[in-house]
Amino acid sequence: MAFSILIVISMRFLASVLIVIVPVCLIQRWRRQVNDIFEQVQRDFKILEAIIKDIEEVAESAKKIDEKPNQLWDSQLKPGATVQLSDAERGWFEATKTLVGTVKDCSETYRRLHEIKYFLELFYSGFAGFKKIYDLKADLGLCNSLINDQLWKKTKICKSVEQSRSIVRSLKDRPIEEDKSSVYKRAKETVFIEKKFKSLMDNINPNLVPETQKEIKYSIQLPLHLLSAFLRDLEEHPLESETEKAWVKEAEEVICKLQHQIDRKTTDLLKWLPFLGNWMMAKDLPKSFEKIERLLRLLFSKKYELDFTFIRRVPSKSVDRTPHQKTQAKIDDKEILEVLDKFRKKLSQEQPKVAFRLNELPDYFEKVHELLKDAKPVEGMDNSRMAWKDQMKIIVKDAIFSLSSSQPQSSKSQKETYPWQKFSVETERLKKALDLLAISIKIFRIELMRETNLVVGLEEDIHEIVSQLTTNTAENFSTLTSVGMEGITNSFENFSTLSIVGMEGIGKTTLAKMVFNNRAIQKHFVYRYWVSLPDITDDKTELLKKLGKEVLPANEKEEAKDYSYKEVNDFLKTRKYLLVLDKIPNKETWDSLKEAFLDNGKGSRILLTTRDKSVASHAGPSCKPYHLRLRTNDESRALFGQMVHSMDEPSHPNHETSSELKNLVKKVVRRCGGLPLSILNHGYLLSGKEVTTEDLSRVLEHVNPYQRPWSENLEKNKKDLHLHLSKCLSYFVKFPKDSEISARRLAALWVAEGLVEVSDSKPLKSVAENYLLELISRNLVQILERKMNGNAGTCVLPCTLREIWLREYPSSCLDEQVIYYFYENDVRSCQGFGGSNYSPNISQSCKNPQSVVCFDTREGDKPGEEIGSYLKKGISRGQLLQLKVLDLEQAFKPQLPKNIGKFKQLTYLGLRWTYLETLPESIGDLVNLEILDVKHTYIRILPSSIWKLQKLQNLYLSDFCRSKIDHQPEKKCHQPKRKFLQNLQILRSGFVDEDNPLKDAFSMMTNLQILDLAFQLELSKQKALAGSLVELKKLQELTLKSIDEISQPQDLYVDHLSCLKYLSSLSLFGKLNDPSTIINTTALPQSLTDLTLSFSGLSDDPMPQLEKLHKLECLTFYSASYTGKSMFCSKGGFPKLQVLKFIMLQELEEWHVEEQAMPTLKKLEFRSCKKLKVPSGLIHLKTLRELKLKMMPLNFTRQVEKRKEQTWEHISVFPVLITDLQ
Q1: What is the DSSP letter of 784?
Q2: Which of 87, 377, 580, 624 is the most exposed place for a label (fewest CB within 10 A)?
Q3: Smallest Cα–Cα separation from 985: which of 943, 1036, 919, 946?
Q4: Which is nearest to 642 in space by CA: 320, 321, 315, 318?
């Protein structure tokens, strides 16, 4: 009985236990299932959520851009699309966005159920609790299914978002301030994962389970190696999108899980006896890493299916592979080909049965090899490229090893057996590894994408301002003085400021931002403050409040607080700071603020930006404003091209060479006048698509450029634009609209027209050139092209400014002083044209013009015939007899009348680039002619009557035709005592040989200032010539070239030139007969600022002598000018040298630079010096701003780039490094 009772009690107890245990076990099981599903959902959900965030971020940025004020243009056009999603992609976005919300709700439920306390409540709540877990499991399962549907849909949404992001980026204000937190820094626990995994595998005896080891090698070790290499490439690389960040985060989580498994296995190995632990671990390995293998596979697949890109934005010129990258690609390809050839040879030696089972492997190898060749090496992908190459070689070598192991073996019974089954498994494993490698080559890429938000045309300006702000020499800064402020004058007078001046929209704030964020500035100034000021305000309290909020610490920034000068000054006086005051509108604003910035003796600086240059001068009497110029044509095109993609770009797959498209792009860009604001506005209207000729034509037809900046700038300049500058600016209006004018030609015309004020100290040509520089600095003239030396090559009056000028000064276009003869009919720029496009009817509009300037560049005989007819009629009718200027530059073979000598008043005759072959003899009757230009013509013999032109000042001859003046003047003119061409000041492209009378005429040209002379003479004749040249005491520029009949360099004799006290520029071409006579301090004048040597054949180092020329600013060594192996620049040498060039010095091996040598050097160039070693003395060039390396050995360039930071770590501003290996 008692036993029965005991059994009943036991059964009840057991039932009670089961009632408790079974539900608990069931709940735990469900919880584990829910945990697994939730983990998978979260992993996939994060990347979908990231894509949604990217789309919303791009859309929000685009919305802000689309809200730009429409008053910036008067247009009937709608702006281009910024966010470009197809209907299917928008549907995907909406569905995914809804799914993201659902997943977030499920995630919140999961977190609540996951808590222990709530779990106990579920247990005691009975069926209701079980149902909640069951429902959550079902909801998560549904979410997982929906996520998979969205995740693996074939959609190109990531590509569309990337394209939209680039468009939006191109339209944002420049520069974009990048988020530093987006720069990828690899998690510490993932850095050594490969070493730890290898260590674990090495500790397992491979003889126990060799097949397991091989399986893990390809399923875990291979993808881990490829993934780790890619993550190393991503280090210090900004992750631009949330999608990139989410995928990298998931990759690191997978690695961390593997890390956890490795730690567990290592612990298990230590628990047991070495052999037993080794056996147990090897047996359990496949199962242990099964989940990791699946996660790695999913990670790779996710990247492949979503097809998003890791982007590195670079300038367009950096997108193409460098020669170094191309060379490396060839080396990699050669190594792989070698092992593949070895495999093929091994396979060809095998029996047919073996070859039959391996017939797929060669095709696999070939496909992956092609992928490797197509994967262009790019900067920053070295780790991945090396990993691909190494793994390819390993797989091929494993295949070779498998072939060796497949050889038949004899058993004890002497029967031959083949391990076919084992070999088939190995083959499948190799194919699987090749598939994985192929996928990794496709997905582990960093795409170099053209930066669409580059700052264009400010590189030199950034470098210059940063250098000035970080240089301690007082001469680089303004000294502010307080006028009428008693008690603070002395403390304020040494404060340093720099001002950036320019019209609205030219990029003052952009430049200031680039300077403000420059690394050298951040290093030099511990404290930096940026204060943006309102355009107009007279409220001093409001200005101080604005200043105080930006400068004073956060805890002192009270909304209603009133600030004082003393409060701000007391805070700043102990700090070395840079303060940027952006957009100071007027002098009154500066006066209201300057009391807060008394000199604290700490080297602080203030950087101002203003449209009004009077503000800068008001800040201090010695303050020299830094003027921003309008962008050049190339710079404007580059800025426009960042936003607008047209098929005329060579990189475009459907590159259209249509001249019409190129001309339309040129017209749109030209219309903007080099003003970034106008360029950005036009680009905005055309953004988001590949523009066509129709798009560009509509813009030209419907868009009127924003005129306020131009009219405002003109009004500001009128206040102090003196009469001569005003006349020169008006002269632009007479040219055809949008005509590209040579700066040289323009200056010459201004002089010829009498627009230049006569100066006793400077030649008229120099005065005219200074006028042009002044107009450029005032943003009234745009430089279209620059010469190699940086000076203006061609220029133009911006079209909007031209329209404003014509409205305000309509008489400018009716001025009949100048008639234009050009191809396109433009009534506003030429009132002298009649009914025909080509034949002007001057009888009705201008009977006695003083100037005729031609802009007709048509090919063929017609332009020359029409010009000839026009001139002949003008002479016969007496309508051109008052002509002073006749400029036919670029007109093809104009037919000059034989009686051209009747133009008695003519002072300027321009025939450059006309390809004329002869000049009329009557040209000698042009008694008032001052300038004759026949450069780039085919005129070999000039009439002897040229000698009669006593007023001739400038003579430009044709160098490639070796122009001569006919006959000796004495023989022809029978005036042996008369001086010929005695007023000549400039002679360019002159040529002298045995028969040329010019060699005997230099003694008469006592006013010559610029001489460019080539000669083909024996040394004895050269000595006589040299003797006459040293008598030209007014010479300022001298170029001498000794050449043979094919213009190759010959021996050159040069006498001492020290007597030429005004000589500033000297260029010598030819082998110096006696170098010691010229390369020494007694032979060269101390006035020399520019020296160029070509083919001089110097064997002794010229530097010890040349460095004593204390005014020398530019020194150039061209090919064969120096044949020695080393050069030495000593301490204190070249005190004012700014530019130094070594070009094609084939024997130069070493260049030594002592400390304090060349203390002002700014630009240094090495070109094609093949034997030169990297100079260690570069470290002493502390003022260097530009280092140009062209056609230098690859190793030289790489060493300079590698050592750049080490070389110049002690100076504030690194020089700009320009490399060109081509």
Answers
A1: E
A2: 87
A3: 1036
A4: 315
- Dihedral angle over CA of 451, 457, 459, 460, nearest 10: 170
Q: How confident is the model at residue 137 (pLDDT cuts 50, 70, 90)?
A: confident
What number of residues does the chain have? 1222
Closest CA to 54 of 66, 44, 62, 65: 62
Parallel/antiparallel/unpaired status of strands 1126-1129 and 1150-1153: parallel
DSSP-derived 3-state class of residue 802: helix
Instruction: Cis check for the bond before 175: say yes or no (omega within 30 of 0).
Output: yes
Q: Give the 3-state secondary structure of residue 934.
A: coil
Q: What's the pLDDT tens digit per position in 231-266?
A: 988 888 888 889 999 999 999 888 888 887 777 766
The Cα–Cα gap between 343 and 323 comes to 31
Nearest to 106 by CA among 142, 144, 136, 148: 136
Count of C-beta atoms within a 10 Å radius of residue 263: 12
From CA 420, how far away is CA 398, in angstroms rounded? Answer: 17
Which position has the token pair 């802000």?
Answer: 64
User: 229 — phi, psi (to 5°)?
Assistant: -60, -40
The SS3 assignment for 1073 reads coil
> 1124 is written with which tokens?
């020695």
What is the number of alpha carbons within 13 Å of residue 132 lying toward its C-beta? Answer: 17
Give me the DSSP letters along 33-63.
HHHHHHHHHHHHHHHHHHHHHHHHHHHHHHH
CB atoms closer than 10 angstroms to residue 86 = 12
Euclidean distance between CA atoms 1105 and 1076, whole angstroms: 10
CA distance 202 to 1073: 75
The token pair that represents 136 in the structure block: 């959550």
Distance CA 237, CA 233 (A): 8
Query: DSSP letter string over 1002-1028?
Result: GGG-TT--EEEEEE---HHHHHHHHHH
Q: What DSSP string describes 634-689?
A: HHHHHHHHHH-EETTSTTSTT----HHHHHHHHHHHHHTTT-HHHHHHHHHHTTTS
The pLDDT of residue 413:
43
pLDDT tens track for 1196-1217: 888 888 787 777 766 656 677 7
Q: Count other C-beta atoms under 10 Å from residue 1115's C-beta.
A: 25
The tokens describing 1112, both together, are 């020398």
Instruction: Give how far Cα 156 sits from Cα of 58, 86, 459, Å.
Output: 16, 9, 37
Nearest to 425 by CA among 660, 157, 674, 215: 215
Q: Residue 344: in which H helix or E strand, if any?
A: helix 323-348
Model pTM score:
0.78
Q: Give the tokens for residue 1024.
A: 């006589």
The separation between CA 646 and the C-alpha centre of its own chain, rounded to angstroms, equals 20
Q: Which phi-psi region, left, alpha or beta, contains residue 619 (left: φ > 0; alpha: ψ -120 to 50)?
A: alpha
**How far is Cα 657 from Cα 649, in angstroms, rounded to an integer?**
9
Residue 964 host element (H or E): strand 964-965
CA 775 to chain centre: 27
Lowest average pLDDT, out of 289-293, 315-319, 874-878, 1036-1040, goes to: 315-319
CA-based nearest residue to 285, from 365, 217, 375, 190: 217
d(CA 980, CA 571): 74
The tokens describing 1012, both together, are 């460019």
Structure-token pair, residue 188: 């510490």
Whole-angstrom distance, CA of residue 854 vs CA of residue 1159: 48
Chain center to CA of 189: 37
Cα(216)–Cα(289) distance, rounded to whole angstroms?
8
3-state helix, strand, coil split of the chain in percent (to 5) is 50, 15, 40
Indicate the SS3 state at residue 615.
helix
- Strands (DSSP E) found in 336-472: 409-410, 416-417, 446-450
CA distance 778 to 931: 29
Q: What is the CA radius of gyration of the chain?
A: 40
